[in-house]
Amino acid sequence: MWGGRFDEPPDALFKRFNDSLPIDWRLVQHDIAASIAWAQELHAVGVLTEDECQRITAGLHEVAEHAESLAKPPVESGLEDVHTWVEHELVQRLGELGKKLHTGRSRNDLVSTDFRLWARACVADRRRELAQLRRAVIDLADRHAHDPMPAYTHLQPAQPVTIGHWALAYEAMLARDSQRLADALHRVDECPLGCGALAGTAYDIDRHRLAQSLGFARPSTNSLDAASDRDFALEVLAVLAACAIHLSRLAEDLIIYNSAEFGLVELSDKVTTGSSLMPQKKNPDGLELIRGKAGRIASAHGQLLMLLKAQPLAYNKDNQEDKAALFDASDELSMCLRIAALVVETTKFDLERCRERASAGYANATELADYLVAKGVPFREAHEVAGRAVRAALDAGRPIEALPLEALQRVHPAIEADAYDVLTLEATLAKRVAFGGTAPARVYEARAAARSRLDAE
Ligand code: ARG
């Protein structure tokens, strides 16, 4: 491929180090698609005759079929990378004519074009998996739109919410991830082919038409930038990392809720494992792996950032490492999204226990303060009074609403029998009616809105 000016073949160890075919093999169909589009343009500028262009196109289709039939990357070919392999296969089939394909292009504009085509498919695939997970989360919210559960700050019981509200919090995060991916697509959607090695191609290629024929929105604008720009990969990877972080939070919530101490949920046998030593155990391995993989996926983003740092213009071989980072993160996130959907679909909430824990911990102390405010007591004093009520209840070893009226009236005379109505779990939830709150009425609306947003996407 480039032997002309060399006297010696590469050292075998160096060759192993340098070759990227095992990694970039997954670009093969994109490489062929880009090559077919390139051949059309070579024909348009008179480098290939109509007949040559047709034979090259047919040859590339044959190579595509052959590639499809291979179970694994053809490393035994000894070829350096996927671009070299495709060209080599073409020359095998067409002889001298095959050697015309690489006219006016470079592996630098080609690899970036292939990688962008792959990234476009990656975005679509991950968004589809995100949508499936979001649907599972919305279904969960449907089943439990008004069932109470405790919610936490600092992992201390804070206020009750509905299970539906909790589920939709994750749907909101995942919806943003999906939007972010769609947004990143605008930068992925540029075609670098025709930028050559770095200075642009010496043939008067219609790069707008070329971009269009590969389904890109536009050609990239500066050849020097385009030959080494990997912002599109960085951006997609940043979103994958953010999404993995969201999944790790979901995983952590459920791991905690599933613990014997919390007992709010029970994970299904389908996503848990037993212990080889302790027969009573049911371990949340699926969720722990999601939590662990988040570190791996987030690191891939750091890896690509560091790869790009201080690279002089334009292409440098460092960039060959870009694909391993994004491929791995994408594969891992794909699994995480699918496993998370399986977990969400199969996890059972212990509604009794959720209700009991939602009522415990004096989460309704704020309600008593608000009740007193409604009776004309200034909030600062009401807060103090509610605190004393918690104190009295703690001393009695019972919830506030289990104290007799006389006891409450000793705390403050403005407390009357109707106070018990505001102290119930239902009243606490129902009061959070402002937009975005946990009142069941709002949760029903939020769930419907989430579903129609998803359907629209
Ligand atoms: N395998 C290379 C990569 O993935 C292709 C580009 C090689 N270009 C070059 N000038 N060595 O980046």
Task: Write structural notes for this entry.
The chain is built from 19 helices and six strands. By secondary structure, it is mainly alpha-helical. It has three domains: 8-103, Fumarase/aspartase (N-terminal domain) (Fumarase C, Chain B, domain 1), CATH 1.10.275.10; 108-205 and 216-356, Fumarase/aspartase (Central domain) (Fumarase C, Chain A, domain 2, Up-down Bundle); 357-456, Orthogonal Bundle (Ribonucleotide Reductase Protein R1, domain 1), CATH 1.10.40.30. A hairpin with a 2-residue loop joins strand 1 and strand 2 (156-162). Helix 6 runs antiparallel to helix 19 (440-456). It binds arginine. Residues 20, 24, 81, 107-108, 111, 315, 317, 319-320 line the site of arginine (ARG).
